[in-house]
Structure prediction request, 135 residues.
Amino acid sequence: MFYIQKNSEGILVVKKEEKVTLKLGLVQYINRLMIDQHVTLQGRIDALRVKFNQYKNIPIYINEECCFYSTKPLRAIDTVCINFHKVLSIREGKRNNAEVIFKNLELLELNIPYAMLIRKHLKTKDFIRQIEKTG
Prediction:
């Protein structure tokens, strides 16, 4: 899964060569992804807060192949959740906005400052390293 984007119809889920619009909320969909691990999004966030002493902008860790960071709060209308593991590069676009190039070479233009997205991406990288160290 490359990213999940909220839209007026629900959410757009972008996988390898497939784009599917689902009439679900973002949190509801993420909970469905996590339920196989017997956890919910809020439960995972609460546990990671305690374990890593982080309280803001906690990445959404699903499994070793899927760890999302969001461009905005999850409840915001135009939020995009980006899978860290599927990002090839991030570059600065027009008016300092960020552009994400995924491993399938899809380009996603975002309405978020480039510097902010880089910080979120690097923070997620550090977060994944912490998880891998602790097992």
